[in-house]
Amino acid sequence: MKKLAVKKTEKCMACLQCVQACSEAFYKTNDVTLSCIQIVEGKNGEAKPNVCIQCGKCAKVCEAGAITQNPKTGVYMINKKLCVQCGKCVEACPMKVMVMAEQSAPSKCIACGICVKACPMEVLEIVEK
Fold first, then answer.
1. Are the CB atoms for 110 and 14 separated by under 8 Å?
2. What is the reported pTM?
């Protein structure tokens, strides 16, 4: 399974470049609320990237069947043509990294690596599990 991961050996400096890169890739705007990666306060008050763990809870609550797991990569993907924009998947996300803009289908991490390339501290990586 392919997924975005946070390296344990590196420290996030909360520069938000990963967040910006994600929101620009999905929505063509620099808006932290529209990013599928969020920087939160971790233990000891340190900045910590919150990322999609590809758990599938979003797919389980999707009554329209719009979220399915790619059999080759293991990444959960949203079929925007099937999505009815109910927002249940956004509410179900345990990591709080699924986002939904007004008048739009939700977005989630697809392990594209844009945030990895944007991170100057090399805190993020795409891994195969």
1. no
2. 0.92
Helix (H) or strand (E) holding 104: none
Task: State pLDDT tens for residues 10-21.
Answer: 999 999 999 999
H or E element in which residue 4 lies: strand 2-6
- Of the pLDDT bands very low, low, confident and very high (cuts 50, 70, 90), residue 116 is very high
Separation in Å, CA 87 to CA 29, 51, 120: 21, 19, 33
Cβ contacts of 82 within 8 Å, gap of 6 or more: 64, 65, 66
Q: Apex CA 17: angle with CA 101 and CA 53, to 5°?
A: 65
How many other β-carbons are positioned within 10 Å of the β-carbon of residue 6?
A: 16
